[in-house]
Amino acid sequence: MKINAKNIIFMAAALSCVKLFALPDAANPIPDASGEYVYYRDFSFNRESYIGFLCYDDSTYEARYYAPQKENLPAANIDILFSAQQKNGRLEMTGERFVIPPRQEDAEIVNYIHDLVYELSGRRYKLPEPPLVDYAKTSAPFIQAGIAVSDNYEQFGGPVQMIYDAAIPIFNLKKIIDYSGRDVLVTATIGRLKNSKDKSFAEFVPLAEAEKDGKDKGAQIKNAKKEKIQSRVEMGKNSALLQSADADKNWSLAGQNVWTLGDSAILSMQTMGLPQGDALGQSKTAARLLRFLATSKNGAYCDWANLDVHADGSWLKIIAPTYNPKSKKFITDIKLLRAAASNLCGCLSLAVYSDSYMANRGYFDKIAKSYSCKME
Fold this sequence. Notes:
Blueprint: E1 2-3, E2 9-10, H1 11-16, E3 20-21, E4 32-33, E5 36-42, E6 50-57, E7 60-67, E8 76-87, E9 90-100, H2 107-125, E10 147-153, E11 158-164, E12 173-178, E13 183-192, H3 207-210, E14 226-234, E15 240-248, E16 252-255, E17 258-261, E18 265-273, H4 283-293, E19 301-302, E20 308-311, E21 315-324, E22 329-341, E23 344-353, H5 354-359, H6 361-369, E24 372-375
Parallel strand pairs: 1-14, 2-18
Antiparallel strand pairs: 3-4, 5-6, 5-13, 6-7, 7-8, 8-9, 10-11, 11-12, 12-13, 14-15, 15-24, 16-17, 17-18, 18-23, 19-21, 20-21, 21-22, 22-23
């Protein structure tokens, strides 16, 4: 398949049309974009609880507490739109409006949200270095990898370890571990609102709650004649970028550089420009790509607590479990990027319904592993 080089996706261009912000005076290597949000699973409560933060601009945010309905407990939902200003390295609320009016018994949670905004911004401000993680040099699981800082946080029992990663928007906080080694605050997902009508922050459905819907057992994929999937992008008169993966005749061409496997999987190949000289495994580039490629969007939520990331200087692989509340379907979303030149890489995107992926994991992993990208 032959496409024009005008179809190349440049990561910088993808961000150029949005407003970017950072916490006041914080050495944030990746400024937050308007509409970016993060949700944390908060284990300090006696019930399943989540805390989310959404950035509108550098002085306007939204915070939400959500607890799913349990057998003897109704769902809890507190949503605060607030303005803030920086003072001594911390964000201090200067005004607030309740999107969802709190009940009298919610006063303690409202105060807790206030304290979190104040404390998390202040502790982020005191970091001695930007929280950049080199995923090419760490063997730790994604949710464990980061810049670890020992601190004292009475709200979470005293001595804690706070793990930071620039891929996480707003506070760059990935997780907090208490003195006993127990997770007390863990990133559940990050996302980005598509427009003012996007309700994915206000209607966040946690993966732990979604799993109650159960999973179907996927069917085995039938054997078929081997066939290579290819994409060719002309880069000039004398060069082209060739991408390919080993597949079979079960796959059908569905559009320009897009193939489908019945109703269970979709595969696409894209070309992505990177800043001159950047390597895929380098910290800042990897963090930007994680925000760009593994974000919750279009009503589907990416499970960051179970994100799988591997990298070196020339490739980056992201496996993102994702849930769509509308279809009640789990999806395994695989992104594999390979460098082709100093500022150019190819990207294989393979999205598979998780029941089919688990039933045919070797089949799909083999396709992803065979992906190649080279100039010729």
